[in-house]
Amino acid sequence: TVGAVAIDAEGNVASATSTGGRLNKMVGRVGDTACVGCGAYADNYVGAASPTGCGEEIMKVTLCRLILFHMEQGKSPKEASDIALAYMFERVQGFGGVVVLDKTGDWAARFNSKQMSWAAAKDDQLYNGLYKDE
Amino acid sequence: MIPVIVVHGGAGHISEERVELSRQGVREAVLHGYRILQRGGTALDAVEEAVVQMENNPVFNAGRGSVLNELGDIEMDAIIMDGKTLNSGAVSAVRRIANPIKLSRLVMEKTNHVCLTGHGASRFAKAMGIPEVPEEFLKTDYSRMRWKKNLPPGSNPVQCQMGKMG
Q1: B165 pLDDT tier (thresholds 50, 70, 90)
Q2: Contacts of A3 in chain B (CB under 8 A)
């Protein structure tokens, strides 16, 4: 799965996600990616999120909307992502990751899987990582 | 507002020999999106372009390089969402399309619906003038190899879980 979130100079946020799905999935299987709130969410009032990981488990907790809910409650993108990913693991043993930003441009790339490749650009600075704590 | 873009290339297992390709792929994708933002473009255009770059990169599980289903075919899902309007467009189980994210955006902008699936999505793509690509173009040697080696039930649970990731 691949995905992106962005905020532009006007303060508008957007989210996009695309995937081939799960290896060896049943014909006709639809995962989280096509579902609003699961495979993406974006709201100028809060921020935007794009996930990757175990699609069925992401759907069960509506991961992106859950992250934005925590941001609405005052959590940072990093805190909201960690809370939601921990909840997904605790409740449905789901692994995955997310890229998230809020309406101020604060951003996070967080995951509870072994790896997630990510990159970010802000203020002409490029950031990227693959393993935890990168 | 200072423009920002963040991308991911998936949380599934990345083998050692593909680590650098994956790092390079997400860096290139984020820079393509960032250039749009630097020129005053919209967040919507930036995320679409970043995802297109990764769909075109066979390293990632999207577009060309997608994993295979139980029959060895490719069915893809994609979604895009505009935070200004809460408008959203998605496609699911779509086949023989190089860039499902572009089709998602057309669903958002040209229909009254949020998601089109399977045959309906293909029909809509044709109506929008999006060319079909051969299924073999989307398949890579790596995706064929992974399909053949797919872990059976009862294997190491962590590895099995990793294999379930999109």
Answers
A1: low
A2: 7-8, 51
List all residues of chain A from 90 to 129 with a beta carbon under 8 Å from chain B: 93, 95-101, 105, 107-109, 111, 113-123, 126, 128
Q: E-assigned strands of chain B? A: 4-8, 76-82, 88-94, 115-117
- 3-class SS at B117? strand
Beta-carbon contacts of B145 under 8 Å, excluding residues fewer than 6 positions away, are none
Is A49's Cβ below 8 Å from some Cβ in B? Answer: no
Sequential pLDDT tens for chain A (134 residues): 999 999 999 999 999 999 999 999 999 999 999 999 999 999 999 999 999 999 999 999 999 999 999 999 999 999 999 999 999 999 999 999 999 999 999 999 999 999 999 999 999 999 999 998 88
- CA B43, B46, B48, B54 dihedral sign is negative
Q: Distance between CA A27 and CA B24 in Å, rounded?
A: 32
Contact check, Cβ <8 Å, A34/B78: yes
Q: Which of B4, B54, B69 sits opposite A26 (nearest CB)?
A: B69
Does B33 score more than 90 pLDDT?
yes
Q: Looking at residue B48, what DSSP letter applies?
A: H
A74-90 as b/e, with b when 16 or more CB fall inside 10 Å? ebbbebbbbbbbebbbe
ipTM of predicted assembly, 2 dp: 0.98
- Give the model's pLDDT for residue B156: 47
Alpha-carbon distance of B4 to B11, in angstroms, equals 21
Write out the two tokens for A76. 């940072």
Q: Which residue of B has its CA nearest to A54?
A: B165
